[in-house]
Design a protein that fits this description.
The complex is a heterodimer of chains A (277) and B (304).
Chain A lengths: L1 H35 L3 H4 L14 H9 L2 H32 L5 H13 L6 H10 L6 H5 L6 H12 L3 H9 L4 H12 L1 H17 L2 H6 L8 H11 L4 H21 L1 H12 L3
Helix pairs in contact in A: 1-14, 3-14, 4-8, 4-11, 8-11, 9-10, 11-15, 13-14
Chain B lengths: L1 H41 L1 E4 L3 E5 L3 H8 L1 H32 L6 H13 L2 H11 L6 H8 L11 H29 L3 H9 L4 H28 L4 H14 L2 H4 L4 H10 L4 H29 L4
Antiparallel strand pairs in B: 1-2
Chain lengths: 277, 304
């Protein structure tokens, strides 16, 4: 009886601590949303005014009027979509070859990719910038996307998934006369579907949110993405917080919606990233 | 049999090379070549504004290790990573061990704790700048109500690093907690049951069972976390604001990190040689820190 009571009490304590933690995690978002509906006067009122007197979309309308937000959305979606498609295709093909096929030089090539993976991408941003300048890719989709689609990390993760698929299925398909590509495309790729989606949602998040490379690779509004737009806004209009917060909400809303829909895939992705390969 | 498999093997080779060709060629061009090029650039005097000034040996490296600004960047990078990562890890172990209890709503907490990672860092920084605003920020208003001091979190050089570390910890807890929770849940219940029979307290179980058994995950998180924190940029770029990074000053000195310095040297001063030298130094530093991790792991990481 007393053990049960003790357990109950410790569970309650755990709840309270976890709830306090959760409040800390959520408050910045709540504050962002609340502020985005306030007027400027309400944001700088003392003592503090917690809720806007009137809930309207004025700040959102203002942001859309002042900034070419629709263009940033279009650019970000374009960048993210092309990055994900190219990255996933390139990485999964290579991952399959390393998981399933034998060929001369396999270990050397694998080691080489590993070495590149070990080097932080920030170290190579200067040469990469000079390369895209030479190629005339500054302010273009290619300049933002191409240097980032060769994800050795994604390849490593997908290779792990392919390794865990039983080989017998490949053998059976081979006997049926399927080519290597058909086996990859029709047999193995569908089998690692869940892992593939888990990695892809994390890549999606990274691609959507990335700031440093798009900041370097663009200099005008033409191919500007949301993260760069937010940074520019932050640096130019630092005191109109109700507008900044409205822009912030607009920039993060798509990822929040996707997170709400696919949280299980996000959790799988995080978990598989933490498993020692 | 042998003959047959030989032709098959040849075919397999060709397919394999086709499969890895995009990855391999792309990584050579946008991965390996820039790495090599970075090393070459680091020993040149190359300012895009004034042109190529020839090879200068280790001059850029001497500047990195003697200039007040770059030394501040090295120091800030180490402080930022060295303080934020351990704090994040300790808090995460704590939260993960609470979550591992038989609780309802575990899923809810996991989802909420990971939320900060969903938001783009640029927006996160913007929100925190507002929360930490000296006069109207929520943080200082709450602190004021509690009768606590209300510092200028972002405009005071003494506090800006603390503010950045708070935000870094806040955004890192979710990922770390989820990984550690998975590790704790992988520990067999029998271990705890037999400890219960021996009359172990909750703290003893945590110290003697949980901690040693999740140490491989903690090692992974520590190593990856330090690597990531040493490359921090977004928050710093967003926090300092326009004025500080055009004029410099003590606020910038207190917070600029190495990636910030690489960005500043490369894209504001257009000094590719210095920027590359600093990249090389950062790379070597990350390698050394990671190497030390691996050296020390025997002392505390428990692989069974």
């Amino acid at each position: 009886m007393s053990i049960k009571k003790r357990q109950k009490r410790s569970a309650l304590l755990a709840y309270i601590i976890l709830a306090v933690g959760a409040v800390f995690m959520i408050i910045p978002f709540l504050w962002m949303v609340l502020t985005s509906f306030k007027t400027y006067r309400e944001t700088v009122k003392l003592p503090i005014q917690w809720f806007p007197a009137e809930w309207n979309l004025d700040n959102y309308v203002e942001v859309l009027k002042q900034l070419d937000f629709l263009r940033y959305y279009r650019n970000t979606i374009l960048v993210t979509a092309t990055t994900l498609i190219a990255m996933t295709l390139i990485a999964s093909l290579a991952a399959y070859a390393f998981a399933r096929m034998e060929f001369p030089g396999k270990n050397v090539i694998f080691a080489l990719l590993l070495v590149v993976y070990m080097v932080p991408p920030q170290m190579t941003m200067i040469p990469k910038y000079m390369m895209i300048t030479k190629l005339g890719w500054v302010d273009t989709l290619a300049g933002i996307v191409v240097p980032n689609i060769f994800s050795v990390y994604t390849m490593f993760m997908l290779r792990q998934f392919f390794v865990s698929v039983p080989k017998e299925l490949d053998e059976a398909a081979k006997l049926d006369g399927c080519s290597f590509f058909e086996i990859f495309w029709r047999v193995d790729l569908p089998l690692i579907r869940n892992g593939l989606i888990a990695i892809t949602v994390l890549n999606l998040l990274w691609s959507w949110n990335d700031l440093l490379w798009p900041l370097i690779a663009t200099s005008t509004d033409k191919m500007r993405v949301l993260s760069v737009a937010i940074a520019t806004l932050n640096n130019s209009d630092g005191s109109q917080y109700q507008l900044l917060m409205a822009a912030g909400v607009l920039a993060v809303l798509p990822m929040l919606v996707i997170y709400a829909i696919c949280q299980e895939y996000f959790m799988d992705g995080i978990m598989s990233s933490g498993v020692k390969g | 049999m042998k003959k047959l498999s030989r032709t098959k093997i040849r075919k397999e080779w060709i397919w394999a090379y086709i499969f890895i060709a995009p990855m391999f060629i792309g990584t050579l061009i946008f991965g390996l070549f820039p790495i090599v090029y970075s090393f070459v650039l680091s020993v040149t005097d190359w300012n895009l504004l004034s042109g190529f000034g020839g090879f200068v040996g280790l001059k850029n490296f001497v500047t990195v290790f003697t200039s007040k600004t770059t030394l501040a960047e090295i120091r800030n990078t180490l402080v930022y990573a060295g303080v934020s990562v351990p704090i994040t890890l300790i808090l995460s172990v704590f939260f993960a061990s609470l979550l591992s209890k038989k609780l309802k709503g575990k899923r809810f907490f996991r989802i909420v704790y990971f939320l900060p990672n969903i938001i783009m860092p640029a927006a996160v920084a913007m929100v925190w700048r507002w929360l930490l605003n000296t006069r109207y920020g929520l943080v200082n208003i709450v602190l004021g109500h509690l009768g606590l001091p209300t510092p200028s979190w972002i405009s005071d050089p003494k506090f800006i690093m603390i503010s950045l570390i708070i935000v870094e910890v806040w955004s890192g807890i979710g990922y770390n907690t989820i990984i550690l929770l998975a590790a704790i849940q992988g520990i067999s219940a029998e271990m705890y049951e037999s400890a219960d029979l021996d009359g172990a307290s909750g703290f003893q179980k945590f110290w003697k069972i949980t901690l040693p058994l999740v140490s491989p995950s903690m090692f992974f998180l520590l190593t990856m976390g330090l690597m990531k924190a040493m490359r921090a940029f977004d928050m710093i770029y967003m926090f300092i604001g326009k004025d500080a990074w055009s004029t410099g000053g003590p606020l910038l000195e207190a917070v600029r990190t190495m990636v910030y310095g690489i960005y500043f040297n490369g894209f504001t001063r257009m000094d590719m040689g210095m920027a590359s030298a600093e990249s090389v130094v950062l790379f070597v530093m990350i390698m050394i820190v990671t190497g030390i991790q691996f050296k020390l792991q025997d002392k505390w990481v428990n692989y069974d």
